[in-house]
Structure formats: C-alpha cells, structure tokens
Amino acid sequence: MKQLRVEADHPYNVYIGQQVFSLFKAAFREMLEAADRIVVIADSQVAQLHLDYLTSYLTEYNVSTLTIPSGEQAKSIETFMDCHSFLLAEGCSRKSLILAFGGGATGDVAGFVASTFMRGVPYIQLPTTILAHDSAVGGKTAINHALGKNMIGTFYQPQAVLFDIDLLRTLPVKEIRSGMAEVVKHAFISNEGWLKELLQIADFSQLSDAELSSHLEKGIAVKAAIVEEDEFESGVRKYLNFGHTLAHALEAHLGYGKITHGEAVALGMAYALWMSRHSLVDDYLSWCRTNGYPLNLLAEVSFQDVLPIMKKDKKSAKGVLSFVLLEKTGAPSVETIDEARAEAAYKELCQKIGGIR
User: Fold this and answer.
1) For a pLDDT cut of 90, what percent of the chain falls above it?
2) Residue 13 a catalytic site member
3) Most buried of 129, 216, 227, 250, CB within 10 angstroms?
C-alpha cells in the first residue's frame, strides 16, 4: 500500500493499493467511532458491484447508504437536494461522516453535499475509477449547471482518500480510456520521460496492477504538489485544467454523459497541443487513435457551437478565451487567445484528423 500526503490547509493522506479499506479498522477507527452517523453516498452501478465489499469492512458501525445516479447525471441540483433530504431523514448532524463511493462525479456531488450540510461535515473519498485519481484529490466539489460544467461548488478537502485498485478490475474499456486521459494530462504538465512511456501504451488492458498503480501514484503526486502550492486555484492550479476549456464545452454541448469526461479532456488536450505547436502533438494524436479516443467528434462539432461555452470557462473573464497551453512538456502557461486564432487552430486540427464542419 502506497501513502501520499497532501499538505493543504487541512492536510490528509491518500492511500493507494489493495485492501485499503482495512484502514477503517486501523488508522480510521477513531474517526468512525466518533461519528454519530456514517452515510455512504454511492454511485448506483458501483453499489451493485462493490457495496457489499465496502460494507464488509464496516460491520462494526451503523452505516446507511444512499445510491445516486451513475456518472455525470448525478451532478444535478436534484441529486444534491436528494442527498440533503436523506441526511436529514437519517438524523445526521455535524458529527456525521460521509463516505463518497464511486467515480469522479460521485465524489464531486458527495463532497459538495459534505461541504454544505449543516455548513460542513467530514467526508472520505473512496474513488472507484482511474479518472477519480484526479478528482478525488484536491478538494474541488461541484455540480453542473445547464450553462456550464462544475459551475456550482466549493473547495472542501476530504479527511482522506482511500484508493483500492482491486475495484478497477471491473471498469469497462470506456472508463479505463477516460481515466488514462487524465493520467496523460498529469504527465504532459510535469514529466516528458513519463509522458513518452505512457504514449507507448497501445492496449490499456495489458497494464499490470503494478504498472497501473505506479502511473496512478505519479499522477496523484503531481496533483498533490500543485494543490499544496495553490489550494484555491488562484495561480498554478489552473494548469491542472490543461485540455479542459474545450473539454467542458464539448460535454455541455453534446450533453453530459454523452462523452466521458476523460474522452473530452483527450480531445481538449489535442486542441491545446495544436495551438501550442507542441513537438509531440502528432505522437499524441496517434496514441489517441490507437486507444480509441473519439477524435472524429471534433469534426462533427463546429467552433461556433463551443465558442460561447468556452467563454464561460472559469479561467476566463469578460468573455475572453483563456487556455492552458504547453509549448514544451512540463512548462504549462495560461494564455489569452483571440477568437480568430482559436477558430483557425480548431479548423486546422479538424482538417488534420479528417474533415471540417
């Protein structure tokens, strides 16, 4: 079992490995015994597959479970209010503890609920996807608005993150692909040697548990280091949004859940790399094709479709386009791009991958 420390305003540990839930009976026994109620907020699909496994480690405690919709559909005001209603009906108080059990969307919702219920209760992230190695660390919580992704939320750090890699074995290929995009993102903004190693992967299913754990540990370490330097995204934490300006616009335009977050980020990184004239952009596009990322979607969405949404991006102000660019690996920067340049780059990239709309 690996352990990483996140030195945020509220420091906490991230544990990665097998049987990490055994910590409920060891390192976290005192925390669980102090809680008057323990509530698991679980992704409905994850609950079907793994809830019994989780609760087998919690037999000594009085635990209630609420299942919420799977994926991005959970990040709605309706689900948010349903969670609060459940906590109130269960008699929860400021001494209650929430366990967020699922992928990134579940962690975002449950974290937002924890940050707002009675003005804040503790929670622990129990991520079950590769993608959540990014979202579970750093304390960003949110739900979506029809006009933009993650527009309603808070910064609220968990008490801990327990990442049991045994749960990743049931992930469908689409979710593995989604998660690995965020792993590659962390490599792009930090380490070219690691990046080139990742770009050699032609079949994610061939990764051993040890290899996957190593990549996840590296990704979490990158995220943790940036969060420690800039917890509330006033500076370098914006670099973690590499690829996300277009990604969030694509998700909003296509409809949340129609494309996975990681797939959208993969397309957004292609666009940012193209604008950056990064030396590895062709290698990256080849990697995307080999591993089934839907590059063709860019040619099916016009620039004008996504432009208004990109202008609402949280990095932007006064309707000006703002992107994380990457002239070379490990050296990201936030730059303002005029519409003409942004549109020209979009059309060039679409032409590169096979057609313009």
Assistant:
1) 92
2) no
3) 129
Catalytic one of 75, 223, 238, 278: 223
Q: Would you give the distance in Å from CA 95 to the centre of its chain?
A: 28
Q: Which of 182, 217, 231, 251 is catalytic?
A: 182
H/E element holding 146?
Answer: none
Catalytic residue among 149, 244, 263, 291: 244
> Which SS3 state, helix, strand or coil, does residue 38 take?
strand
3-state secondary structure of 59: coil
Average pLDDT, rounded, for the chain: 95
Catalytic site includes residue 248: yes
Res. 357: pLDDT tops 50: no
Among the options 175, 231, 233, 251, which is catalytic?
233
Residue 187 gets the label, from left (phi > 0), alpha (psi -120 to 50) or beta, of: alpha
Q: How many CA atoms lie within 13 A of 211 on its CB side?
A: 11
Contact 307, 253 (CB under 8 A): no
Do residues 304 and 208 make contact, with C-beta atoms less than 8 angstroms apart?
A: no
Q: Is 215 a catalytic residue?
A: no
